[in-house]
Amino acid sequence: MKVPEWFTKNLFETALKNFFQNPNIIVTDLSTQDAIPAGENYTSDLFRTTIQYQCGKSGKTETMSVIMKCANEEGGVKEDLAKELNLFEKEIEMFGRTFPAMYEVLGEYYTLSSKCLYTCLTRHKIIVLEDLTTLGFNVLPRHVGFDLEHCFLVVEKMAQMHAASVIMYENDPSKVKLYSEGLYGNNPLTREWVATGYKALIDACSRWPGFEKYGYKLYALGEEALERGFDAQKRKLGGFNVLNHGDLWVNNMMFSYHSNGKLKDMRFIDFQMNIFTSPAIDLHYFIATSTKIQVKLDHIEIILDHYYAQLLANLAKMQYSLERVPSREQFKKDYNYRAFYGLMGAATVLAFVKAAEGRADASFENMIKDESKEGFRYHAYNNERYRKHMEHLLPYYDSFGILD
């Protein structure tokens, strides 16, 4: 990606002065490069900028690395999606109002995200974030997916975030006003993308021996498949609702490790798809898009049990009445009821996750519009990695009766 011309010393001085609350900061040098390769992010442009700066009279030069998250300004599906779903407005709200409110509940010990240095919506949409790689955090290879140990840590952090949002919402319901729609907002662009995903999956099933019946079932549902997926994410009147991350695929979680290689900590990143609804949404999406095949085969119920226990433990610490939390049976019933959301994630996002690295044509635009056998869509739905996951997930979702 081309570095924007408006990445000026003045912009970064403003960001650092805001973050450090120091009006005397002077930026002396900048160096910017792409933060991630092509095909690893689909809704914004990401750059890593190394800033050299001085703080006032001492003249000592300091260095800091930041992640610059910018709205795409070149037109096309990427820019349209960001506008349609208010992606930058939501993430700026998360860092500006929502996280501070949740950390008030959780305390400083709990860290769910990177620190935000600066945000702006005028002229250019910008979010300047702490570079977590400088603290030892890294993204795992998306092709591989998470083992059970990583899954446990993810759902522990998920339960912290969900529990804090329950208290936050009760204290001030306006804090979730912007989070009524997530990734699958019911708009023409998203509907076209989801319909394309189902069509490509139906087509792929016709080439997988023994899986043709799932293609037939999806084809028979027609438009109803879209409606069931969109309906599965809706809040139920009187239901138990939390602030879901809304986009928990592999690249939106970063992990750190002890010197002996043992898992130490994790952070969520990318808060553009948050949605206030049932916690089953994050669970279905995470299981569909981010877990190893062996986890999908053997450990889904264990993960759900671990999440539920962690949710109760966190709410109990916050002195929330557990009588108001769904029983394990009610929780599982709600998870089952929303199974079509998991299928929708598998039929759309999982194809991006399992696609080959480094494809220059990896984009929403090509996923929707390019129907050629050489194109990104055909590759994403017909590579062996995607097929292996779907060969387990299709029977799993069918077991809920959602395809009938």
Outline the fold blueprint.
Blueprint lengths: L8 H12 L4 E10 L10 E11 L5 E10 L6 H8 L2 H20 L9 E5 L5 E5 L17 H24 L16 H18 L6 H10 L1 H10 L9 E3 L8 E5 L5 E6 L6 E3 L2 H11 L2 H6 L1 H18 L10 H10 L1 H16 L9 H6 L6 H7 L1 H15 L6
Antiparallel strand pairs: 1-2, 2-3, 3-5, 4-5, 6-9, 7-8
Helix pairs in contact: 3-4, 4-10, 5-6, 5-12, 7-12, 8-12, 12-15
Structure description:
There is one protein chain. The protein contains 15 helices and nine strands. It is an alpha+beta fold and 404 residues long. It has a single domain (89-115, 138-398), classed as Alpha-Beta Complex (Aminoglycoside 3'-phosphotransferase, Chain: A, domain 2). The protein has a five-stranded antiparallel sheet. The chain has a two-stranded antiparallel ribbon with strand order 6-9. It has a two-stranded antiparallel ribbon with strand order 7-8. A hairpin with a 5-residue loop joins strand 2 and strand 3 (61-70). It starts with 8 loop residues before the first helix and ends in a 6-residue tail after the last helix. Pfam families: EcKL (PF02958). This is CHK kinase-like domain-containing protein. InterPro entries: CHK_kinase-like (IPR015897), EcKL (IPR004119), Kinase-like_dom_sf (IPR011009). It comes from Hypothenemus hampei (Coffee berry borer). Residues 127-317 form the CHK kinase-like domain.
